[in-house]
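Sharing a chain and its predicted structure for anyone who wants a worked example. Both blocks are below, sequence first, tokens second.
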Amino acid sequence: MAAVKIDHVTKSFGENQVLKEFTDTFRDGEFVTLLGPSGCGKTTMLRMIAGFEKPTSGQIFLDDLQVSGGKTFIPPEKRNIGMVFQSYAVWPHMNVFDNVAYPLTIRKAPKDQIRKSVERVLEIVHLSQYAKRLPSQLSGGQQQRVALARALVAKPGLLLLDEPLSNLDAKLRESMRFEIKDIQVSLGITVVYVTHDQTEAMAMSDRIILINQGTVQQAAPPAEIYNHPVNPFVADFLGKVDFARGNAEKGRLVLEGTGQSVPYAGGRQGKVLVAVRPEKIRLSPSEGPLEGIVESLYYLGDVSDLRVRVGSVSFRVITAPENCQSLRPGSPVHLSFRDMMVFDDDGSLDEALRIRT
């Protein structure tokens, strides 16, 4: 397997700096996701790890071997990595077996070794019965598994995945993300995964590195980055959230535009920015510090999704359907926050909302 050490890496294309001072270490066997909006630099970082791009400055190590930086550059084919791209890139004229065997064939590995290696990896990705089929005879999910098998067949120390599920429909994406995670765990392989889909990142990762405009915003396990974001951009990008401005004073937090307040035991004082997730709001017909009016209500089967207006502020509430059976648009309700995130109001809300739109 392989650990990846990235030391103060920057990357510029002309005068455009797309990645700024990226420093981190991906542990051996860790599943790390580079997450962020389009153009944030995540794919550029992946391509530098692969060796398709050279850093403008900084160094990259695979285990203790420097592969990029200064005068050192080891080409992709000598880095012992496997890579799966957004497009399946399977050879249409080759059957599944030959597609998967290709990396070993061009290395002129012995035929018996090729057969054993291909059979093993096809079993791992559940494609043994399709070995003789052409790609045109496979579904999109099966073609993606062919690409994954081809990346794994040479037993790479590191697997790089560049938005591999974006071309699949929703159900296939969901099933494939669990298959990839199961394969990673069973093989103990180090994975660096690029996506802009926060659900994929949350479901699969040991650690998420969220990037915006070339700068790492936060690097943490999914639960930590979701529940304890370091700034409004992170809070907004990971999951559903509503923001409200307020003022913290004497154990209360007065929400701007509402004339109402909620208890606050945190350490910030003065003008603040409040972020609250819809599943963290408790809804009641009569109990809670905030009084509001139901604007909309949608029954989604396992949950009900509401919009509740409190003064000039609208909060989204996701709750069990039995909690709102008697409610209709226009119904008065009370809200309380089971949890909220409070930031200094430094103008970053406007940046978070600009990026979201």
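Comments welcome. Residues 170-187 form the longest helix (18 residues).
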